[in-house]
Amino acid sequence: MSWIGLGLVLAAIYLLWRLFHAAPIRRAGLALPVPKNTYPASRCVHLPSPESPFQLITLLVPEFPLQGAAIQMIKSLDYEVAREQRAEYEINLSLLACTCPDFVKRRSGFAGRDARRICKHLYHKIRPVSVRLFDPLLQVFLSEHQPSPYLYQATMGGDNIVLFGITPGDEWLNVFTRRRHKGEMPGSFTGEYKRYGFSIARNGWAYGDRPAGADELRQLIAYFVSD
Known about the structure:
By secondary structure, this protein is an alpha+beta fold. It has helices spanning about 5-20, 100-105, 120-135, 135-145, 215-220, and strands spanning about 25, 30-35, 55, 70-80, 85-90, 95-100, 150-155, 160-165, 170-180, 195-200, 205. It is flat, with a radius of gyration of 21 Å.
């Protein structure tokens, strides 16, 4: 084998190793894969410095009354490979666990009653009680989020709580904030919570959908941009 051939073989082995051994995130017992960084380092999400105005938090799902067996078998209609395929999963409402691929691959690393454990199957089972027992931010987070490894909370203006869901090395971050009612001043928004997507690489909001207080939110988002 020539030196060129040997070099190509070694390069192929290295590429395969990188493909199947993504560095894990490890904090507070969490070990989830980090997506490949396909964007310039200066235009990706990263963890903010300790001096930033953010607090690393965990949204917890409160205990709720269970009706019937805590462990249930449910049938779910999923769409895989562009065709309908019926699958049956087992959920445990007491442990907030499910056997679906989304839970097993992306959510099972979160512990206890962490809201990021809730897959769509668990959500549809607890939804009837969530309207009565869960606060508005938690309701929106459960119904629309992707399981970002890190959740940061900040106060915008007066006492408006804003939640940021981030995945280091990704282009996008999720922003959960309140809508603005007509006539409301910054820092006193009372509308319902909504999720907004922001692209670091493109420096803009998904679909051009700007939240109330977008300029102030951009100042906070700057803390998540790599140097």
